[in-house]
Write a structure and sequence with these properties.
The complex is a heterodimer of chains A (about 180) and B (about 325).
Chain A: H1 2-10, H2 12-30, H3 34-54, H4 58-82, H5 98-119, H6 131-137, H7 139-147, H8 152-174
Helix pairs in contact in A: 1-2, 2-3, 3-4
Chain B: H1 2-36, H2 52-62, H3 73-90, H4 108-129, H5 133-164, H6 169-178, H7 182-185, H8 187-200, H9 212-215, H10 225-250, H11 266-288, H12 296-326
Helix pairs in contact in B: 2-10, 3-4, 3-10, 4-5, 5-8, 5-12, 8-10, 8-12, 10-11
Classes of the chains: A mainly alpha (about 180), B mainly alpha (about 325).
Amino acid sequence: METVLQYFSINPVFYIFATLAVIFALMMVTSENPVYSAIFLVLTFFCLSVIYLTLEAEFVAVIQVLVYTGAIMVLFVFVIMLLNLGRDAQLTEYAGPMKYLSILLGFAILIQIGLATKVTFSIGAKGAYPIERVNEMGNTEAIARELFSQYLYPFEIASILLLLGMIGAIVISKKRPD
Amino acid sequence: MNTMLSAILGVLILFGVIALQGLILVYMERKVSAWMQSRLGPNRVGPWGLLQTAADIVKLLLKENIRNERSDRVIFFLAPILAFVAPFAAFVTVPFAATIGFRDLDMGAFYVFALGSSVVFAVIWAGYGSNNRYALIGAMRSAAQMISYEVPLVTAVLGVFLVAGTLSLREIVQLQSQGLWYVAVQPLGFVLFLVAATAESNRAPFDLPEAESELVAGFHTEYSGMKFAFFYLGEYAEMLVSSCVLVVLFLGGWLIPFANNANVPTWLHLLSFVSKVYLIIFLMMWFRWTFPRLRVDHLMAFGWKVLMPLALVNLLATGLIVYWLKS
């Protein structure tokens, strides 16, 4: 108990919002009403964005809200409401034995992530962009510099993928069954 | 702890100021509309009817809080709160004067847009939580409108960021003190932003959510009393935020035109900022009593087929010119 309090006093904001994020994520999975699921996912995203803020990654935090909650989740909720999946429509699907396999796989991924953070990252190490330099040049500029120089091709490929998705959606919606 | 205390104090002051602004804006709206229609407007409660809006608030407070029996209690309760909190929180990064403002974020402008985009949830939740067909359909209509106009809104502003080379609102104002205001550099962006911001805060002629005469209002059909007042206040807060951002991005923020801004006392800067914001708000009210309400399909077509291409052309041209000037 004492160690828990010790950790908590170092960074209370992180622990509060990390706990909330986990709780909301669990409620998102377990709630039977899809509209509630969407709401809990939005709340999870907000908590994540606060965690990014405590890491001084302001740009990522703002983009998290702008893109995930402001755009993607709004479209999710839109689709849920358009398909009229509210209230009475309970998405209970029979998963069968696959359920146990998925639990197993989930734990495997969790252990893998834990091992990866333990082995490859040493937390607090300084890379090319330590916090002092990022604060000096600004969050946005630091990300832009990397994104548009070293990671230009992956960035362009990702944008082409998104464009393809948009064109695909337009083509599918234009096709009339006659 | 001291910073915590000052932050709480600041939030309380901000809340008071915005609530007061809400009262003033409602009064101003009525007086402006009366003036444009050759009427007198409110003139019974208090001198020149100044206390009319205060009386209205008392009326709203005393009204019965009706909740539909089969409505969703939690969502129904949360929606009006979010509708007010999101635009309220956006004020954190607005620089009111050279030394007044809460915190200058590195990407302040994006922060404002991110919070603006969360208002859509308030609308959707209100419509869903009411368990009323009219409210649900109205919410879908409003959400579609807000999503559609958010895209040209942000795209129109990208030109300013290209010229300024920063996303920080305070720095953008400081850059404008050295040269032309960005309304002269980005006239098309200014017009696009003004139109899109009017639509984004659901003001006439884009006020389909409030078309009670032909569309049974919208997402707030089932709301009454104080909850309705929160939607109302949220709309005015949103209008204030978009006017503040517009003034900061295009009209030089707190700067006083044709004057040396170096040795001016802070209260004059603040006065300049507030008067510019009120000028923009007056413009929005002028829109309301000039243009008839758009039909919903015209509204969507206007957003996607007129505003959006213009914003893209503006962005492309600005990018090319900035690139050409820098190389």
